[in-house]
């Protein structure tokens, strides 16, 4: 396994390097500074994951990285001149979301090669693992420490295994799924591991309760539509509103994408097909190639608008028909 490029220097390089794929060697980058966010993993008749990305207005990029062994769908957001990933799913069905955590903690200091930052686990998992068990094994020999921004990770796989990973005072703190689903916002899941969902408190507790309750009420019929409903209920409309909502289907390798809280218009990305296309709410069909260069959310919005009705062409056709009609009438009179 290739080594990470660790440290703040790598982050600074990433921030000014421009758009680059989230690769261990070329990126070496912390993925996120999101102000909020809500994610979940649900194991019902279908296995589905979801994530709301809440952040001040910024450019978003969707991409698929393919190194010929594993493909990764990334959602990235602009940081300076570059982009950093905050959520993704790979072709093996492993999902990971890296989100801000409050209250903030003092940044940790790496004392040896066994120490890893939260975002490093997030990137490493999607690029090289196919199950939560592998993430577990990776962490069994390492200690997760806080970066300059306090973060926590949600990991989930197609085998029914999901967990939230947080930094502990002495050891890694892991909270596993209960009731066949798990939700993560921006307070420590570990602090309420033995509490009812109604008792949770902290940043994002309101979004957590809304998501948890809707999932709980719909477990018997949970599908992509219900997943989108969960995200719609948990959107943020604050100064840092929800910019992107995504439901991930690991069994089909598909991602359903909503931009700017408009749940009447939906895009669908295919990991195997490396494409993104209009799925619902559009009058015409559009499909774009999705590779490591990515597609911007602003471009998707433009494509989704379509060419509009060709009023100019219609006027031209009517003028032409009128001319033909006049000619035929005149010809008939001459013939008579």
Textual characterization of the structure:
- It is a single chain.
- This protein is α+β, with helices and mostly antiparallel strands and 336 residues long.
- It has a single domain, classed as Penicillin V Acylase, Chain A (4-Layer Sandwich).
- Helix content is 26%, strand content 30%.
- It has helices at residues 8-16, 118-128, 132-140, 205-217, 224-233, 297-305, 311-335, and strands at 38-43, 47-54, 60-66, 71-79, 82-90, 95-100, 115-117, 143-145, 151-156, 162-166, 173-176, 181-184, 242-249, 254-259, 266-270, 275-280, 287-289, 295-296.
- The strands form 3 sheets. An 8-stranded antiparallel beta sheet has the order 12-1-2-13-14-15-16-17. Strands 11-10-9-6-5-4-3-18 form an 8-stranded antiparallel beta sheet. Strands 7-8 form a two-stranded parallel sheet.
- Helix 4 (205-217) packs antiparallel against helix 5 (224-233).
- It is globular and about 55 Å long.
- The N and C termini lie far apart (91 Å).
Describe the secondary structure blueprint for this structure.
Blueprint: H1 8-16, E1 38-43, E2 47-54, E3 60-66, E4 71-79, E5 82-90, E6 95-100, E7 115-117, H2 118-128, H3 132-140, E8 143-145, E9 151-156, E10 162-166, E11 173-176, E12 181-184, H4 205-217, H5 224-233, E13 242-249, E14 254-259, E15 266-270, E16 275-280, E17 287-289, E18 295-296, H6 297-305, H7 311-335
Parallel strand pairs: 7-8
Antiparallel strand pairs: 1-2, 1-12, 2-13, 3-4, 3-18, 4-5, 5-6, 6-9, 9-10, 10-11, 13-14, 14-15, 15-16, 16-17
Helix pairs in contact: 4-5
């Amino acid at each position: 396994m290739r080594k990470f490029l660790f440290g703040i220097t790598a982050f600074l390089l990433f921030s000014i390097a421009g758009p680059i794929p989230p690769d261990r060697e070329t990126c070496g980058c912390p993925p996120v500074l999101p102000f909020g966010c809500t994610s979940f993993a649900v194991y019902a008749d279908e296995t589905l994951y979801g994530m709301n990305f809440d952040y001040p207005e910024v450019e978003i990029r969707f991409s698929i990285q393919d190194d010929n062994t594993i493909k990764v769908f990334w959602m990235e957001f602009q940081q300076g001149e570059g982009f950093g990933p905050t959520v993704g799913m790979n072709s093996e069905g492993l999902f990971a979301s890296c989100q801000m955590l409050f209250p903030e903690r003092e940044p940790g200091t790496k004392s040896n090669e066994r120490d890893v930052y939260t975002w490093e686990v997030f990137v490493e998992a999607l690029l090289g693992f196919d199950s939560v068990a592998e993430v577990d094994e990776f962490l069994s020999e390492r200690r997760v420490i806080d970066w300059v921004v306090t973060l926590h990770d949600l990991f989930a796989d197609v085998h029914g295994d999901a967990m939230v990973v947080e930094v502990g005072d002495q050891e890694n703190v892991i909270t596993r799924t209960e009731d066949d689903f798990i939700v993560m916002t921006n307070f420590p899941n570990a602090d309420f591991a033995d509490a009812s969902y109604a008792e949770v408190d902290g940043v994002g507790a309101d979004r957590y309760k809304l998501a948890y309750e809707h999932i709980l009420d719909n477990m018997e019929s949970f599908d992509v539509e219900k997943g989108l409903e969960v995200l719609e209920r948990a959107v943020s409309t604050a100064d840092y509103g929800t910019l992107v909502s995504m439901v991930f289907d690991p069994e089909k390798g598909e991602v359903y994408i909503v931009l700017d809280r408009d749940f009447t218009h939906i895009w669908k990305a295919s990991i195997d097909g490396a494409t993104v296309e209009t799925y619902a709410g559009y009058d015409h069909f559009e499909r774009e190639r999705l590779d490591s260069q990515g597609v911007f959310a602003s471009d998707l919005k433009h494509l989704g608008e379509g060419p509009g009705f060709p009023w100019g062409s219609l006027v031209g056709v009517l003028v032409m028909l009128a001319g033909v009609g006049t000619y035929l009438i005149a010809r008939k009179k001459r013939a008579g």
